[in-house]
Amino acid sequence: MTGTNSNQRVAIAGFGAIGMRIARALDAGISGYELAAVSANDRDKAQKRLSVLSRTVPVVAIEELEPLADVVIECAPAALLPSIAAPFLRKAKTVIVLSAGALLSHDHLAELAKRHGGQIVVPTGALLGLDAVTAAAEGEIKRVTMISKKPIAGLLGAPHLVTNGIKIEGITEPMRVFRGNAREAAIGFPANLNVAVALSLAGIGPDQTIVEMWADPSLTRNTHTIQVEADSASFSMSIENVPSENPKTGIITALSVISYLRKARAPLRVGS
Known about the structure:
- A hairpin with a 3-residue loop joins strand 10 and strand 11 (234-241).
- The protein folds into two domains: 4-125 and 252-264, Rossmann fold (3-Layer(aba) Sandwich); 130-248, Dihydrodipicolinate Reductase, domain 2.
- The longest helix has 14 residues, at 251-264.
- The protein has helices spanning 17-28, 43-50, 81-90, 102-105, 108-116, 130-136, 159-163, 182-188, 194-202, 251-264, and strands at residues 8-13, 33-39, 59-60, 71-74, 94-97, 119-121, 141-150, 175-181, 210-215, 222-230, 234-241.
- It contains ten helices and eleven strands.
- A six-stranded parallel β-sheet has the order 3-2-1-4-5-6, with helices on both faces. It has a five-stranded mixed β-sheet with strand order 8-9-7-10-11.
- The chain is an alpha/beta fold.
- The chain starts with 7 loop residues before the first strand and ends in an 8-residue tail after the last helix.
């Protein structure tokens, strides 16, 4: 059963800065969609934040979301992805995933979607050019490299830094803290490199996509530079993302989800 006037009902799982930005956009109006439910660790806080919206939206536990919605937007810690996604996929529904890195350690979710007719969507997020990469992948991609540079605050506490005893507090020059493939990057920087996983899934896979991570005390924005060599084209792209309230996540991440929802039912759709 869908929402009023054939609108798709949307649930937001995780209600930090990104979830709230998406909720506001849905409340203001996105054709074909309506906000139906929210799940949050702090339900009282989430309910208070939701009070500014024009209509009442329930705050429920994760396991209560699926019956209330046709689409779920995952904005939660990566460890919660399976419990959020699986119930929706089993009912042939759509799961919009922001913790793309978690897909690599939970590949059964893609099989679940295939078996039941559900769909997992990884929006462009903090990255640009995924359309170009997916197009190039229809031919032969020879090499994909991504160099990410982040302010110190955006990297503090990353598992790779903790495990390897890498100290970035107080550095005065840019410091490369990681070089490896996208699969390793997703493990070492689960809150920082979902973009690398999205890039790898669009192109030549997580084991062949090369990633560098730099801590840069001079930066206030998260920056990503992508270089692609393919038989159809060679191209490079750079983006500087303004952080949200969460320094590990850019504002454009929320906007990319909103953009996806707007163009999903648009009479004129630009970009694949």
